[in-house]
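Exercise: predict the structure of this protein bound to adenosine-5'-diphosphate.
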Amino acid sequence: MAAVQRLLRTAASGGAASVARRRMTALAPEQTPLAAAFPFAVAERSRRRTAGERNVQWVFLGCPGVGKGTYASRLSRLLGVPHIATGDLVRDELASSGPLAVQLAEIVNQGKLVSDEIIINLLSKRLKKGEEQGESGFILDGFPRTVKQAEILDGVTDIDMVVNLKLREDVLVEKCLGRRICSQCGKNFNLACIDVKGENGLPPIYMAPLLPPNNCMSKLITRADDTEEVVRNRLQIYNDMSQPVEGFYQKQGKLLEFDLPGGIPESWPKLLRILNLEDQEEMKLATA
Ligand code: ADP
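Solution:
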């Protein structure tokens, strides 16, 4: 444990990748930094089995642009658990111009995956910080993205449920290209108006743009990896590297498939119904 804490401190002060690589080859998944940072790590695993005894530990899967961040953050507010998006952790690291930033920029801007070691170190630091602040439970978005990451996660904690959001590929590309972020408040918006006719057995789909308020309008930026070429590359990498993660959880009986029927007004109530959370939303609205 103390050795892992030292490793986390080393990660924070700089030499993360090489140290992590050396240590992780020698350590079993249960001894990795992730194990140390998980609030419900191995030692407590057996006594916190069901979601009734602790806050939820969910994972959101889905292709780039499908809306993992949108629905995971809504659910995190509803359930009072942190929404932890590894893509955000990577972007924070990029913006910090720390020692990893140059290395990460090259990988991320080509749409490639960051190494498991780096991503696990970023996630471990985030979980440890949350634990110190009394956070409990989580909704993970963008992790795990490889079967190896899923196996490591499995070695350190119990995931209750995995929601797999699905949308047709032509719509995913349009949504990524329409995505904008306010450089000041950090909120996500989407300028694309998706209006696709039903054909070849696929239903029609309409998604209204998610427009920013006036004060954000002049501060909108586009993610460097949201160009058409990079989006198509990310989709290919998702199919090759991340789709097998769906099978990993399907075999465990934890995968909940959710085909998005449209934009937030149609999809959110349907998702709540499938998750059996309609009452929770009503209670929250009633007490707001
Ligand atoms: P997307 O819109 O493609 O789902 P994210 O915001 O989740 O994008 O992630 C942005 C980038 O951060 C990814 O393209 C990848 O380079 C990196 N990244 C995020 N999560 C992971 C992960 N679990 N493993 C490896 N790389 C990751």
